């Protein structure tokens, strides 16, 4: 993989995902140093002139009017990082931590936070060595950005707190020593520059968007597989329907479903059997999955704007010599996007679970009860559908928007907060749940296709069944299905199932 070049201007969701999961290398654009030096010069000038600048020679939050003696300015930044590292709960996983580190470095390199070049350079060095700060998952309200999570990140950079190094949780000072990364010594404004910002929200949300985009593609394949197993009709996917209701996501989803089903002998085998229309979970699949796809596109645009934004406070504008205090750190844009993503993803899971329910119900499927070979003696996929239902129901709770909540902090100075960090974490959890619902649908639909033998499905869908069957054999008699579900999740994560379907589609063109 080509390295990611961090400019502060063009970081993408794919870049974040690659750095987080595949440890794609990140390098700094050489021109970034000059931008940062210009904004840093503004801070140094303000200190020399003893101008009152928030967070440089004042306290923080409701203490913004408290002036700090010049001899205490360096201690002010160190104390800021220590005091704000008040997070609790399980630490973020490695993928999320890498995503946040990358997002933080990129934002600082934009050149408006007034910190030295050494700050993002140290972050990139930690990424290169996979030296990961231990960041508790609870503590941000998305107000001045992600203060507590970013404070824990910053604490590790100065040699305090903890890091994960080579799979072990150790003291940050020891981790920096082993990795050969000198600890930072913070100067005025730099603690504030590190902990202000929305990189916790945007880093985690970028991962959720990336994972849901892949899950959406699998959801379309699973829906097509279920439609064939259930003797569904592809009439509802006709392009004429989507020309007169031209939402791009719906049209794309319908086009994909038609391509996946093209050439299915199963479809041809029942074409003349009278059937006016299918249940909504089949007939409306392109509408629902397509709508979620449109939301994904919107959320991707929002998070990529945020990844390349200056979200600190105050910000230093070297072009006209101003240092401005504002609200760029408020997480509302990405909080709303994260909530919308959770709702859209949840709907993809909801409709998939309904198709699983139809597959196991002999009254509507024409298949054996619960897809069991010997119903009664064996329960087949009965409780796998329960699991899909449990996941779908959990998503309904998780999809309650976090961004409609607000709770004042800092003695009322921060009197409206976004709860964006909660929203991003929830969205990511919803996506993981949807992934497992789709995995259950793959298993149940593949079993259903097996009962339609010797008639075969399309080339593309048979490739999907073949990939699944190499990982999970048919259920000839009852067995624990939890591991089977996780095996299919791994196929989805690795991309091998999708790759085989794409090859089959290309071969059929």
CATH level 1 class label of the largest domain? Mainly Alpha
- Largest sheet, strands/sense/barrel: 3 strands, antiparallel
| Physical arrangement of strands within the biggest beta sheet | 4-6-7
Unreliable spans are none
How large a portion of the residues is in β-strands, by DSSP E?
5-15%
Q: From the helix content, strand content and strand pairing, which structural class follows?
A: mainly alpha
CATH architectural label of the largest domain: Up-down Bundle
Tell me the number of structural domains. 2
- Gyration radius (Cα, Å) is 26 Å
Number of strands: 9
Task: Give me the strand/helix succession.
Answer: EHEHHEHHEEHEEHHHHHHHHEEHHHHHHH
Per DSSP, the total helix count is: 21
The CATH superfamily of the largest domain is identified as Fumarase/aspartase (Central domain)
The CATH topology of the largest domain is: Fumarase C, Chain A, domain 2
> What is the residue-averaged pLDDT?
95
Distance between the termini: 29 Å
What best-fitting shape do the alpha-carbon axes yield? elongated
Classify the helix fraction into a percent range. Answer: 55-70%
């Amino acid at each position: 993989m080509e390295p990611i070049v961090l400019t502060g201007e063009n970081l993408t969701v794919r870049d974040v995902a690659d750095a987080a999961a595949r440890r794609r290398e990140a390098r700094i654009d050489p021109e970034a140093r000059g931008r940062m030096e210009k904004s840093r010069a503004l801070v140094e000038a303000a200190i020399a002139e003893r101008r009152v600048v928030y967070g440089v020679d004042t306290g923080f939050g409701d203490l913004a009017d408290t002036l700090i003696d010049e001899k205490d300015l360096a201690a002010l930044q160190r104390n800021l990082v220590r005091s704000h590292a008040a997070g609790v709960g399980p630490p973020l996983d490695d993928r999320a931590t890498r995503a946040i580190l990358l997002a933080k470095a990129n934002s600082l390199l934009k050149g408006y936070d007034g910190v030295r070049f050494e700050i993002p350079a140290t972050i990139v060095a930690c990424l290169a060595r996979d030296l990961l700060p231990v960041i508790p998952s609870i503590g941000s309200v998305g107000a001045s950005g992600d203060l507590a999570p970013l404070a824990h990140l910053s604490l590790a950079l100065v040699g305090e707190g903890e890091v994960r190094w080579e799979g072990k949780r150790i003291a940050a000072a020891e981790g920096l020593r082993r990795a050969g990364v000198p600890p930072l010594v913070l100067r005025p404004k730099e603690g504030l520059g590190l902990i202000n910002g929305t990189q916790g929200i945007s880093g985690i949300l970028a991962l959720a968007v990336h994972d849901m985009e892949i899950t959406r593609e699998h959801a379309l394949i699973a829906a097509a597989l279920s439609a064939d197993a259930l003797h569904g009709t592809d009439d509802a996917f006709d392009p004429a329907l989507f020309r007169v209701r031209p939402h791009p996501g719906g049209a794309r989803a319908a086009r994909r479903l038609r391509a996946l089903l093209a050439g299915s002998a199963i479809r041809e085998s029942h074409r003349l059997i009278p059937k006016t229309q299918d249940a909504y979970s089949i007939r409306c699949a392109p509408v629902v999955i397509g709508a979620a796809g449109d939301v994904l596109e919107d959320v991707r645009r929002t998070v990529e704007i945020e990844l390349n934004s200056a979200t600190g406070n105050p910000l230093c504008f070297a072009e006209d010599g101003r240092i401005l205090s504002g609200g760029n750190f408020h997480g509302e844009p990405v909080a709303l996007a994260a909530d919308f993503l959770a709702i859209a993803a949840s709907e993809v899971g909801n409709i998939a679970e309904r198709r699983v329910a139809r597959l196991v119900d002999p009254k509507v499927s024409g298949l054996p009860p619960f897809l069991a070979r010997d119903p009664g003696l064996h329960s087949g996929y009965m409780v796998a559908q329960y699991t899909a239902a449990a996941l779908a129901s959990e998503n309904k709770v998780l999809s309650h928007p976090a961004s409609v909540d607000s709770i004042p902090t800092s003695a009322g100075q921060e009197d409206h907060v976004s709860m964006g960090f909660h929203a991003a974490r929830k969205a990511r959890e919803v996506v993981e749940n949807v992934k497992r619902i789709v995995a259950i649908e793959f298993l149940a639909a593949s079993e259903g296709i097996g009962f339609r033998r010797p008639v075969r499905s399309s080339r593309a869908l048979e490739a999907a069944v073949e990939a699944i069957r190499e990982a999970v054999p048919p259920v000839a008699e009852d067995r624990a299905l939890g591991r089977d579900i996780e095996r299919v999740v791994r196929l989805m994560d690795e991309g091998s199932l999708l790759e085989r379907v794409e090859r089959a589609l290309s071969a059929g063109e």
